[in-house]
Write a structure and sequence with these properties.
The chain is α+β, with helices and mostly antiparallel strands and 356 residues long. It is built from eleven helices and 14 strands. It has helices at 7-19, 25-40, 51-60, 88-106, 122-130, 184-193, 213-218, 227-242, 279-294, 310-322, 328-341; strands at residues 3-5, 70-74, 78-82, 108-116, 134-140, 144-146, 156-157, 161-166, 172-177, 202-203, 209-210, 220-221, 264-272, 324-326. It has a seven-stranded mixed sheet with strand order 2-3-4-13-5-8-9, sandwiched between helices. Strand 2 and strand 3 form a beta hairpin. Helix 1 runs antiparallel to helix 2 (25-40) and helix 4 (88-106) runs parallel beside helix 5. The radius of gyration is 20 Å and the shape is globular. The two termini are 13 Å apart. Mean pLDDT is 94; it is low at 351-356.
Length: 356
């Protein structure tokens, strides 16, 4: 039976339980906000189901509770940072602050982060840069999930990436995708809900297509667009892993494993809009592009054309009022976290459905 919780309550619980693991209050709140924001956007695959993963890694020492990023090299517009196994969210937040400031100073910046961890949704961070007058691209790598095209053993990560830009009166336009047919977290979410996954998402350990999420987790996630998805994932590992000096390929450890150095790498590129054109003119042109796109006649069964990021913004507006509904397994995980940390358990909006 699912339970519905207010976003603010969920944020407070996630922050408090993270802080109970030795994470500084500001950093704990950032981690919590990335999870709750993913829930509000309608992406529970990157939401609260991941909280126990992060906390387990903190408890084992695989992730350092206090992030201590240090500079490897700095030539002004290009910065390389060693994350020393800190929380990916905290290190990426640091990268955004540095990237935006340097883009405003130099016109464009690149911030490479090595020895980091999973940072949640990439769009959370590219949106931050876009809100400060930049067009931003963020790439990261991940633990093996797909086989190289033509192979049957996983060696390549989903290696997601995001691009965000200011959209004038339409808000931020943002894309955030994995290069697989689906993000791995969506398969974990289907498993938690006891639901089959669609055909075309995954194959089992023998390379046979499957709709069983448990077999898919042990097996392979299929690339999006066939060989193109594989090639994109490979090249984003070049950018996020090889180029940054971090782990790559099968050396990357995923957040669902409680032990082992993650070795995730990130590459953030920020372009200062004002360095290329007048920001007001850019926003006018963006609005024109958005309006042209949304004015296209809709196909049968489609009520409205959306631009990237618009569905998430609409969903967040609704769920801030309605509350966030958690799957049974996620709720059970949170009760275990509450017991272990002595942080009071959340009170669902539908509290009459609490187990006796």
């Amino acid at each position: 039976m699912p339970y519905t919780v207010g976003a603010a309550d969920l944020l407070g619980f996630a922050a408090a339980t993270t802080e109970a693991h030795g994470v500084p209050a500001e950093d704990a709140r950032l981690l919590a906000d990335t999870l709750v924001t993913a829930e509000l956007w309608g992406h529970p695959s990157h939401g609260m189901l991941r909280l126990p993963w992060y906390l387990d890694r903190l408890a084992s020492g695989a992730t350092a509770a206090v992030a201590t990023p240090s500079t490897v090299s700095d030539n002004g517009s290009v910065l390389v940072v060693d994350g020393h196994d800190g929380l990916g969210q905290v290190l990426t937040g640091h990268a955004v602050a540095q990237g935006v400031e340097r883009a405003h100073r130099h016109g464009i910046s690149a911030v490479a982060v090595r020895n980091s961890g999973h940072f949640g949704t990439a769009a959370y961070f590219t949106r931050r840069a876009a809100e400060q007058g930049c067009v931003a691209l963020l790439a990261t790598n991940a633990s093996p999930a797909m086989a190289p095209w033509g192979g049957r053993e996983k060696r390549i990560g989903t290696n997601p990436w995001s691009i965000a830009a200011p959209g004038g009166r339409y808000g931020t336009v943002v894309m955030d995708i994995a290069n697989t047919a689906v993000a791995r977290g969506k398969i974990h979410h289907a498993k938690e809900r006891g639901e089959p996954i669609p055909e075309g998402w995954a194959a089992d350990a023998d390379g046979v297509p499957t709709t069983d999420p448990a077999r898919a987790i042990e097996g392979l996630i299929l690339p999006m667009a066939g060989h193109k998805g594989y090639a994109m994932s490979f090249m984003f590992d070049v950018l996020a892993g090889v180029l940054t000096g971090s782990a790559f390929g099968s050396s990357v450890v995923g957040p669902y494993r409680p032990t082992g150095r993650s070795g995730v790498g990130h590459l953030l590129i920020c372009v200062d809009i004002a360095a290329m054109t007048e920001p007001a003119e850019f926003e006018t042109r963006m609005e024109a592009l958005i309006e042209e796109t949304k004015s296209v006649p809709t196909a049968p069964g489609t009520a409205e054309v959306f631009v990237p990021g618009e569905p998430e913004a609409r969903t967040a507006q609704r769920l801030r009022t309605e509350g966030i509904t958690l799957a049974d397994d996620t709720w059970t995980s949170l009760t275990h976290i509450a017991d272990a940390t002595a942080v009071p358990l959340l009170k669902p909006v539908n509290s009459q459905e609490l187990p006796a």
